[in-house]
TrEMBL record:
Gene name in the database record: ybaK
The keyword Protein biosynthesis is assigned to this record: yes
InterPro entries the UniProt entry points to: Prolyl-tRNA_editing_YbaK/EbsC (IPR004369), YbaK/aa-tRNA-synt-asso_dom_sf (IPR036754), YbaK/aa-tRNA-synth-assoc-dom (IPR007214)
Pfam families reported for this sequence: tRNA_edit
Top-level taxon: Bacteria
All copies of domain YbaK/aminoacyl-tRNA synthetase-associated, residue ranges: 38-148
Protein name: Cys-tRNA(Pro)/Cys-tRNA(Cys) deacylase
Enzyme class: lyase
Family: Belongs to the prolyl-tRNA editing family. YbaK/EbsC subfamily.
Source species: Fredinandcohnia salidurans
Keywords: Lyase, Protein biosynthesis
């Protein structure tokens, strides 16, 4: 649990569900806040670190996709698992309005609304997963099953082959 850190909304939700997690902090003054850079800064294998992407459908539904930082979202697969014809990334300017988080600090846990969340199947190969804690400079590591529970997420194949 968090000690000596300002709690983010994601951490408060994990605490309320009694889900254990570990916090990693990193300096962001250099502007390197992409997932691979963050993994290096906190000394974690990038394969354990997942990024949170927010997209909308042709019907304006919002979806959340959690994928490994070294991978790219396959928009066709994303649309298929979402049950819509097409999805595209939301503009960066809309991230905070829709999620309550900013680019680079967007956690799949504790968004303004409970959007359908899809976690790439590579998570099945891991005991734990690292995602944004909801603030630039902070990451949380938790069990994959706990991420599924805390986001009501589904494990699916959503990255480019």
């Amino acid at each position: 649990m968090a000690k000596g850190h300002t709690k983010t909304n994601a951490m408060r939700i994990l605490d309320s569900k009694k889900i254990p997690y570990e916090i990693y902090t990193y300096e962001s003054n250099d502007g390197k806040i992409d997932g691979v850079s963050v993994a290096k800064k906190v000394g974690i294998d990038p394969k354990l670190v997942f990024k949170t992407l927010v997209a909308h459908s042709n019907t304006k539904e919002i979806f959340v996709f959690v994928i490994p930082v070294e991978e790219e979202l396959d928009l066709k697969k994303a649309a298929t698992v979402s049950g819509v014809k097409k999805v595209e990334m939301i503009p960066v300017k809309d991230i905070q309005k829709l999620t309550g988080y900013i680019r680079g600090g967007c956690s799949p846990i504790g968004m303004k609304k409970a959007y359908p969340t899809f976690i790439d199947e590579q998570a099945n190969n891991l005991d734990s997963i690292v995602v944004s804690a909801g603030k630039i400079g902070m990451q949380v590591e938790l069990k994959v099953d706990d991420l599924i529970v805390s986001t009501n997420g589904r494990i699916v194949d959503i990255i480019k082959a």
